[in-house]
């Protein structure tokens, strides 16, 4: 856990800075967060799709409509929850409505949640590979016929494919998931509540797979749970167990703008190119926190 400190020099390029719409906040609070992120000059807003909370695609669409500049990322859409054809239609629609501002990401889903939903498959990685391959071809405007283990399409072609290339990011936690994300993804979404060493190891695994596939992994998204103001250390310690992290593992940042910037820089030096700040569920002034990120933390990263 990081307290107030002087931000260390950044040895890697300054990452994109965003804020995460945490699923512990109610859906009706998204508009306030999205417009605050835009007004504060943040680069990104990331929405989640955890079962059984907000719809990630509905949240992304609303956030894009409420803003004009900020990039909106969706991490992650669980592949088993939607057919590949409808996922392609949804991505293409948002990409055409808001060109260059939507970053979709897919994963194989949390298996316990997939079982609860009645869509758990025998090989989640096979499903994710088949889904990613079909999505890429559909979003490129191609007619797709395929009969895989899980994905079956018969002469499907989008009437309105994206006008421009849409990045398709993948995410995962385990080594095999990270390898697949590195091999097939345009970017990598990492799990929340990771130390810089965790991020470095995950990026290394994915990057090795990317290079074996003949390309470089150039976009990596990481999350930093952060707090500021009175009682920040205590609030961070209370928040971390909700995300499977012990308070004494060096995860998160608590303190002033310099402390949060140092946390972001540590993740950037570990390989993250975009960092979303995740506020705590009990943050007493969410808009004020977002303003701090845009007007004080972001300039420190670019100093």
Question: What does the secondary structure layout of this molecule look like, with pairings?
Answer:
Layout: E1 16-21, H1 30-39, E2 44-47, H2 56-66, E3 71-78, H3 84-97, E4 102-107, H4 111-116, H5 124-139, E5 144-147, E6 152-156, E7 169-171, H6 175-184, E8 188-189, H7 196-212, E9 220-227, H8 232-239, E10 253-254, H9 257-269, E11 274-279, H10 286-302
Parallel strand pairs: 1-2, 1-11, 2-3, 3-4, 4-7, 7-8, 8-9, 9-10, 9-11
Antiparallel strand pairs: 5-6
Helix pairs in contact: 1-2, 1-10, 3-5, 5-6, 6-7, 9-10
Structure explained in plain terms:
It is a single chain. The chain is an alpha/beta fold. It has one domain (16-301): Luciferase-like domain (TIM Barrel, Alpha-Beta Barrel). It contains ten helices and eleven strands. The chain has helices at 30-39, 56-66, 84-97, 111-116, 124-139, 175-184, 196-212, 232-239, 257-269, 286-302; strands at 16-21, 44-47, 71-78, 102-107, 144-147, 152-156, 169-171, 188-189, 220-227, 253-254, 274-279. Helix 3 packs across helix 5 (124-139) and helix 6 crosses helix 7 (196-212). The longest helix has 17 residues, at 196-212. It is globular. It comes from Isoptericola halotolerans. InterPro entries: F420-G6PD/mer, Luciferase-like_dom, Luciferase-like_sf. This is Alkanesulfonate monooxygenase SsuD/methylene tetrahydromethanopterin reductase-like flavin-dependent oxidoreductase (Luciferase family). Residues 26-243 form the Luciferase-like domain.
Q: Outline the biggest β-sheet.
A: 8 strands, parallel, barrel
The CATH homologous superfamily name equals: Luciferase-like domain
Kindly estimate the percentage of residues that lie in beta strands according to DSSP: 15-25%
CATH fold group: TIM Barrel
* Order of strands, widest sheet: 1-2-3-4-7-8-9-11
Low-confidence stretches: 1-10
**The CATH class:** Alpha Beta
Rounded radius of gyration (Å) = 19 Å
Structural class: alpha/beta
Number of helices: 10
Q: How many β strands by DSSP?
A: 11
Order of helices and strands: EHEHEHEHHEEEHEHEHEHEH
The geometry reads as globular
Helix content range: 40-55%
**Averaging pLDDT over every residue, what do you get?**
94
InterPro entries: F420-G6PD/mer, Luciferase-like_dom, Luciferase-like_sf
Domain Luciferase-like: 26-243
Protein name: Alkanesulfonate monooxygenase SsuD/methylene tetrahydromethanopterin reductase-like flavin-dependent oxidoreductase (Luciferase family)
Organism: Isoptericola halotolerans
